[in-house]
Amino acid sequence: MRQFQCDYIAGCHPDLLAALVRSNAEEVPGYGMDHFCEKARELIRTAAGAAQADVFFFTGGTLTNRTLISAALRPGQTALAASSGHIAAHETGAIEATGFKVTELPSNDGKVSGEDLLATVLSYETSAEQFLLAKPALLYISYPTETGSLYTREELQAISRICREHGLLLYIDGARLAYGLAAADVTLAEIASLCDALMIGGTKCGALDAEALLIMNDSLKEGFLSQQHLRGALISKGRLAGVQFAELFRDGTGDFYRSLGERAVRDAQRLRAAFIKAGITPDGSSPTNQQFVRISAAKLAHLNRNFRCEPCGKAADGRELVRYCTAWSTKPEAVEELLAAIGETEALP
After folding, report:
1. Are residues 139 and 242 in the same domain?
2. What residues in the chain have per-residue pLDDT under 50?
């Protein structure tokens, strides 16, 4: 059975595994106070063009989101997110469990529009009953989005400008950032310059189970390590994340990290073209490694014989909605086999 249901089905890139083995016997301090983590921090800062950023390491995306957002907000404040956003739809109420509301905005192909953001903020600012409302204080977006779409440079700039003009923090979840960087000409440095905090995903981008959180906004930095520990998110053997991220950003440019997404993006776009040719309709505009499609039961049954995808419910037209996901680890022969199988569905209803 070929696996196309997600982008974290393999362990880690061989280069990262080799680095972990090489460093395994060395004894270093815990909690990220080691030279591996410090090297990784410097390499990430260089690649992101964020010399003054604080960098923290986590073991998963939901834990990163929960820690950053709950530490950033104050009682009576709310985080804004697209209705399809990870914190709104796929985190089991993790943010709400910390006592903060997630206010959902319309999802436009997975994205929050500047118009909807501004309307929401102005609605609060012009209300005569602000004391009855949760104050918008942080906007959460992801790059790529949950549907695989990407914000354009202009969209990111507009959102960043609105947040800064109205006093909102902008947090970008980059759990799949390598695929986003591989699919567009927006750079890591540009993204980092537009937000207050940025997660650089490792788990879905070649690492075992590591994420890096960059905090650019000084108001979020003070005491954050304590906030991380308070929420059970501080890694005692922080070196494990440090070794992996030092390898992912080994040249200080981020080129290796971005390259891990390049073939996955190319493969996903080949699948997208094959789906269209076979009468299987893409759902959304994804230029990245996730492809959501509306597919008939007969065609899906044929593909399910040898290829595993992620069921996503029923599409509005009654067909099945599923996700096929490529990754840095996807084998070329698996892609070729899936392409051939998709072609075989052309004759099926």
Report:
1. yes
2. none
